[in-house]
Amino acid sequence: MTIKPVVDRKVRLAFGSAIAIMILVGAFAYYCIVVFNENNRWINHTHEVLDNLQELRFLIQSIELSSRDFVMSGDESRLKSYRTSVAQAEDSAAAVTYATRDNPVQQREMPSLAALLAQRSQFAESVIRLRQTQGLDAAVKEVEIARGDRNSDEIYTEIGMMRNEELRLLQRRSADSQWQLDETKTVLLFGTVLGLLITGAAGWSVHRDNSMRALAEEALRAGEEQHRMDLSGVRDYAIFTLDPQGRIMTWNAGAERINGYRAEEIIGQNFSRFFPPEDIARGMPEELLRITAANGRHEENGMRVRKDGSRFVASATITALHDAAGKLRGFSKISRDLSEAKDSEAKYRGLLEAAPDAMVVVNQRGDIVLVNVQAEKRFGYRRDELLGQKVKNIIPEGFAERLIADDARSAAEALAQQIGTGIELSGRRKDGSEFPLELMLSPLESTEGILVTAAIRDISVRKAAERHLAQMEGRYRGLLEAAPDAMVVVDQAGDIVLLNVQAEKQFGYRRDELLGQKVTNIIPTGFAERLVSDGLRSAEDALAQQIGTGIELSGRRKDGSEFPLELMLSPLESAEGTLITAAIRDISVRKAAEADLVQNVQDLNRSNQELEQFANIASHDLQEPLRMVASYTQLLSRRYKGKLDSDADEFIAYAVDGASRMQRLIQDLLAYSRVGSKGGNLRDISSDNALQQALQNLRGVIQDSGALVTHDPLPTVMADEIQLIQLFQNLVGNAIKYQKPGVPKVQISAARNGAKKWTFSVKDNGLGIESQYFERIFGMFQRLHKREEFAGTGIGLAICKKIVERHGGRISVESQPGSGSTFRFALAEGERKS
Which residues of 432-466 are buried (b: 16+ CB within 10 A; e: fewer)? Predict the structure, then answer.
């Protein structure tokens, strides 16, 4: 009687322990399922980031191709594809940023990637603007010099680094998921063994032991059924089991969605029906099962076929299943549709079709696997005539050789050396005709290995232009080499296209160091500014004004030393537009002589007494014989013009002009000397009356130029009336003379400056003056323009400066090139106000 309660207690204890163990095992199994689902979610997230990175790479390639197409064609309508790709690239980059927001490693890389994308976009925009504004050659030169492809390489490298980080995460998360699965199996096995041990320790009978085992098996079956129900609800992965012969035994919702078969249609069928016919013919399904049975597990990516016959790329993991005795009882297979994420294949195909160039995708065997409509047009084939064919049918030589140049390199290594470089080869059309082309290669990773995307551009027009340039260079080189001066030919983009041996000697460079370089390397400032000095003139108009005149600038030798030079520009028409031939002469000796002359004049300025003596001599001893010379030369010109030979007429004209200029120079020097020193002869003067007298003296100039001269009421000041009239006359006359095309406008005004001062302003809308010349223009004999452009002696503003200083003031100028000038000077207020 007492044994039964003890036995019952043992039974209850053993039964309770078994139940507790099953509850713990079940709870742990549920926890493992939760963790497994979480791991799967992170694995899916990693695949999403990888898809975004691949899409971003495709869009960068599309930006490069569409911008290049516009540069080559100039067709504004083709910018639509470029703008679309830029917008999509920005969206894709934002998607990458958002998707990696939980990854500090990736987030640290995003600013660098964003900066590189901005540089790529800026570079493409600059090339497009150059194409729009300066033409094909300027854009091509910019591409060749700036090497925007280096930026693309950096972008691809940055994307590759981020992709490697995601692949590392994918590997780790997959390993965690596998570890979790293995741990679940271990715990389930341990729980079962522990239950059996507890049952045996309790000393139950065989009947009771069998009953307990049956209960455990039922619980296990229930767990397996629950696990099967959980798996059946997974839709992102195809999960099914096979018997040892490859017949399908179970089928989940993901398998139905991905492959298109319902469970009742596919269970019992061989899984080989998911493979393409060519793989079935090679025995690939049986080979996969054989490898898995031998190794226990096998992973592979390959092409699969759905129920409707469509193909897709799948990633599959096959695991061998064994019973307790180690006998193979079947296989489990988990697969994922790699081409499904965001319809990447359709997007890639769309990018191919949107590309302006012919696009051909080739596998490592040299077979064409994808083409776009431009490739059909370029080579004259229909798409079905190209797909599956060897690429050598359309590019006979050089394509495969560029990928693998020797046995020491893999295809990936050989391809990496070609990325971003244009490969010039020959293409063959369907009709047998050949044409020159340029290839741009890009790697494309796929489940079949590395594919090669080739952007193909017909360069027949460019080759013809290069031949023409070579002919032109040969034609003009002889002329350039015979010139005694340094000769440099520059295109509208400022690039040096031709030069002679004198230019090499002058600047210290070898010819190959200058060809293709910017002319600003040897003439840093002033060259381009002289061609287009303001926004009102085209380059041709500005150049035409410089032809035949010497432009004084500074040159820079290879060693960094600078020297003064004089340019003589000439236009040269060519197939590439108007080129500029510049004859360059070193004027260091002449400048040294001029410096000595200027020093002498400055010494003269510092000695008023000597200048006054000179003025007296000029007034009496120089003007009289000069008037006689001028009178007789003018008489000779009028009486004998046309009666002598042409040389005599020319010589007489030179004499008349020289005598007239000498008279003007002496008159200006006398005017300068008469200003005198500060103080004396100052009285109350109406500046309004002085201005009216100056305008009366200038009435001929005002009428001839059509100038509009306006002024405000002007005050009474302390001044020398004669000198004030001359001051106004010089400033207004200069304002009318130094004008750009249009109506000259001059405004004279005065404003009170303190209690006893008036500041006068003479403002014009003329050519303007660069800031470095503000002080220089008030010196003796200082000119900013050639005598052939504007007549004068270079003394007028020096007279103005001396007049103002004699009145105790200071004269200054404010100006910008092309925006006019304003001259200001101050005078003391008179006792009577006007």
Answer: eeeebbbbbbbbbebeeebbbbbbbbbbeebeebe
